[in-house]
Amino acid sequence: MKKILIIEDDQNIAELERDYLKLNGYDSDIESDGAAAGRKAVTGEYNAIIVDLMLPGKSGFEIIRDVRKKLEIPIIVVSARMEDIDKIRGLDCGADDYLTKPFSPAELAARVKSHISRYERLQGGSGAATDIISHKGLEINTSSHKVFVNNAEVQLTTKEYELLCFLASNPNIVFSKEHLFDAIWGSDYYGDTATVPVHIQKIRKKIEKDSSSPEFIETLWGTGYRFNA
Questions:
Q1: How many other CB atoms are there within 10 angstroms of residue 2's CB atom?
Q2: Chain-centre distance of CA 83, in angstroms?
Q3: Residue 202 — φ and ψ, nearest 5°?
Q4: Burial status of residue 31 (CB atoms within 10 A of its CB: 0-12, 13-18, 19 or more)
Q5: How many helices (H) and strands (E) does the chain have?
Q6: Distance CA 169, CA 163 (A)
Q7: Which stretches of the chain drop beneath a pLDDT of 70?
Q8: HSE toward the beta carbon, residue 117, CA cutoff 13 A
Q9: HSE value, Cβ hemisphere, 13 Å, CA-based, for 3
Q10: Facing residues of 30 across strands?
Q11: Could you say which DSSP state residue 148 is in?
Q12: What pLDDT digit, counting tens, does each position of 51-97 carry?
């Protein structure tokens, strides 16, 4: 049975999340203290993490950053903080999804299922021959899902990798935010297209020499994005 770590200091909310996850076939651990949760989150025993942002001991932002240094498992934020800046900061730290309170626990369970499924597909590997996408020092190994810039590996989250791979596999074609959102996040994702430029910027910081003057992923204002081959 897949296991989820719930990091939430409101016991009622945590138990509600646990109950709905159990109905969907997931086992869950609950941790209310941020510092203790941070230690559990990086053990590698969980298939996904649900985390609040405001926690005693250690913030959710810090926990997300610490996990992303070691693991690429799905991370879903559930927080009462609904300002765009908080959502952007959460995604920028490495979260894959963001839900604001009050929320539908059934929707949360559906998102967990969707993210785990996507993660497993990316990690699966078909046994096919190695396929390399290479452009000007950027190398994407689509078999191992590893990305290198000038032979140095860079760490991307699941969604960052999917987005970069999609663009690089379709060079010199302009894609709107809406098209990229549908292609990468799909119809079962309940967010909005604002997540696309956030992820584009995160990718640029990792693969571009100068993210303010990108060489690979170009913005065409009012139109969308294009990968320059």
A1: 16
A2: 19
A3: -65, -40
A4: buried
A5: 8, 12
A6: 10
A7: 123-130, 187-191
A8: 10
A9: 9
A10: 6
A11: E
A12: 999 999 999 999 999 999 888 899 999 999 888 888 888 888 999 89
Residue 132: per-residue pLDDT: 81
DSSP state at residue 139: E
d(CA 11, CA 94): 25
Residue 34 to residue 98: CA distance in whole angstroms: 18
Asked whether the beta carbons of 93 and 66 are under 8 A apart, the reply is no
Looking at residue 215, the DSSP 8-state letter turns out to be: S
Sequence-separated (6 or more) residues with CB below 8 Å from residue 15: 30
What whole-number distance in Å separates Cα of residue 99 and Cα of residue 17?
Answer: 12
The CA-based diameter of the chain, rounded to the nearest angstrom, is: 52
User: DSSP assignment, residue 143?
Assistant: T
Closest CA to 50 of 98, 114, 91: 98
